[in-house]
Design a protein that fits this description.
Elements: H1 43-71, H2 74-84, E1 100-107, E2 112-119, E3 122-127, E4 131-136, E5 142-147, E6 152-158, E7 164-166, E8 172-176, E9 179-183, E10 188-189
Antiparallel strand pairs: 1-4, 1-6, 2-3, 2-5, 5-9, 6-8, 7-10
Amino acid sequence: MFRSRLPNRAMGRTPFGQPTRTAVGDAGQDDAFDADGTHSRWRPVVEAVDNVLIPVAFGLLSTLALAQMAACIPVVRDRLDARAGRLVAVRTEAGSTAPAIFSMYVSPAVPHPDVEVWVNGQRVADFQRPGVTVTVRDGDRVELRAMNLSGTVWIRIDHDDPGLLSPAPGQVYELTGARSRVLLPTVQVQ
């Protein structure tokens, strides 16, 4: 009897030596024969192509999946964008935008050293003169405090910076009484 040097599977046998079933269901029929018992000359070619193409397709899909996962890493994404000449996003932390400057004017226009300007809980200026300039960043909290104020004063905000959205120019805040405090809206800078 003729024996092939191919493994048992190529001869239609399981690794335990038992015959495999074909699509027709006949036990022991060789894979090299069609259901009607004739030898197919294309079957070895198709099997050889399958033996090559399936691992190659699996390898390509695995490589594609790994490349997509690697592109999710921010450092890798930045380098890919820079290499391709695309816009590279610059990450900034909150409060690290460029500083904005706005002015505050007191009315009546006389010195009021008892009116103070606080930014993020730190005293930055007082109204020794009728006007004060304050430098802020996005997210800062600006507060006006009056200590020992005998009357009423109005503080007007003024600036010409189009990137400074809040506080808006023209807003007026009133301070009255001995211990008056006004919290301005959170600073918003574009």
